[in-house]
Design a protein that fits this description.
alpha/beta, five-stranded mixed barrel
Length: about 240
């Protein structure tokens, strides 16, 4: 890889990071929202570094290389592959993690919780998948019994049924964890379909203990747009139309 190509790679990578973080929500496919400022700073630094090298080379030319009769500014040929991620940030963003990833991952282990606040009287009761699982398996008061809840996530088919799923980033896609709720009473929709699902706890195991199934008897479903905060287990923020 020649010196010019190296400079071009720096500039393209910087532009790609700035495009993804400033003008789109695509960066949320790979990192948490809080890392956006770092992506912007990184993009600016890479762009400035590339432009600085270009200006330096323009001013100084390649006098030293000409004097020696050969060029030292080369890199291994495999370095050309670095253009693939750089261009993908500008032209075609890789798909987000989804049902395929979730189907090959276990469910996240829910943290121990000793105290639970009283549930509001709202029906259906909006809940995250993690909150539902925690209530079902740890709440000794069994406050979830008989309550109609509403959860949102995407469809992951598998094992003769389907799960409502969320993939959660702690930092980025590399440390993603999966939380799933098994759905009963309705056929599996297409994989990766985002749904709001209402239903009641599916009786299996002893409610309030680890034997209780993280499962729902489905009363109804409705399609929703993929939320902006798709890789959290928060209540969804849907895109503005």
């Amino acid at each position: 890889m020649k010196r010019t190509a190296q400079i071009t790679l720096l500039i393209l990578t910087g532009l790609g990071l700035l495009h993804t973080a400033l003008f789109t929500d695509l960066y949320l496919r790979y990192v948490k929202e809080g890392l956006r400022p770092l992506l912007i700073v990184s993009g600016v630094l890479l762009l400035l570094l590339g432009l600085a090298h270009a200006a330096f080379d323009h001013d100084s030319g390649e006098k030293e290389d000409h004097a020696h009769g050969h060029d030292h500014s080369t890199a291994p040929r495999i370095a050309w592959l670095l253009f693939v991620p750089a261009l993908s940030l500008l032209l075609y963003a890789p798909p987000a993690l989804g049902a395929y990833t979730a189907a090959h991952a276990g469910s996240e282990t829910v943290k121990q919780q000793k105290r639970f606040a009283a549930l509001p009287a709202t029906s259906p009761l909006p809940m995250t998948l993690t909150d539902f699982t925690t209530r079902v398996q740890q709440d000794k008061e069994r406050a979830i019994k008989g309550r109609t809840v509403e959860m949102t996530g995407f469809v992951t088919p598998g094992h003769g049924g389907w799960d409502l799923t969320r993939i959660i980033f702690t930092c980025c896609a590399a440390d993603a964890q999966t939380v799933k709720i098994r759905m009963y009473g309705t056929p599996a929709p297409p994989a990766n379909t985002w749904l709001a699902v209402t239903g009641t706890w599916h009786t299996q195991g002893a409610l309030g203990t680890k034997s209780a199934a993280a499962a729902l008897d489905v009363h109804g479903t409705r399609p929703i747009a993929q939320p902006v905060n798709a890789f959290t287990d928060d209540l969804p923020l849907t895109p503005t139309r």
